[in-house]
Specification:
171 residues, alpha+beta, 32% strand, two-stranded antiparallel sheet, 4 helices, seven-stranded mixed β-sheet
Length: 171
């Protein structure tokens, strides 16, 4: 497994990421995560539409909370785009958080069971067993068209760039 030492920082501390650094033009790797209904979800299950995949450490942290709420709001302006937020949070915790936050337009998915999304997308931080903050925009054919690995995990992604990439693909 490829290690990328110092690829991101967490509160200024260098962290290692496991997995490849994906780039626009790459085929999106397959994954198997768990939905809030405890059923498995794979990349193939989401195919046929433009997707923004937001990798976050935990919905119960301030930046992840704000990021997911922002994408929940923005996706209503992007017909034909689905937003998937993937974290290591348990599906029950994700469902509870969505209910409390009023998030209905973002699909939250958990990597807790298989732990294969993180290494496949190059976002797993092995020291803390959480996924780093990153955003991937996939076209309908599962080709990655936009990637952002957020250098400092506690900072926000570039929402405007990710949303613009998704909008361009969906029109």
């Amino acid at each position: 497994m490829q290690e990328r030492k110092g690829a991101v920082t967490l509160r200024g501390n260098p962290m290692t990421l496991l997995g490849p650094e994906l780039k626009p033009g790459d085929k999106a790797p397959d994954f198997k995560v768990i939905g809030n209904d405890m059923k498995p979800v794979t990349l193939a299950d989401t195919a046929g539409k433009v997707r923004i995949i937001a990798s976050v450490p935990s919905l119960d942290t301030p930046v992840c909370d704000m990021e997911t709420k922002r994408f929940n709001e923005e996706v209503t302006k992007l017909p034909g785009v689905e937003i998937l937020t993937i974290s290591m949070d348990l599906p029950m915790a994700q469902a509870r958080w969505c209910g409390a936050a009023g998030v209905k337009n973002v699909r939250t998915l958990s990597d807790y069971r298989e732990r294969n999304f993180g290494p496949a997308y190059g976002v797993l931080i092995p020291d803390i067993q959480l996924d780093a903050r990153a955003v991937f925009v996939l076209d309908k054919d599962n080709t990655i068209r936009y990637v952002e690995y957020v250098k400092e995990v506690s900072e926000h992604p570039n929402y405007d760039a990710a949303l613009a990439a998704a909008k361009k693909l969906s029109s």
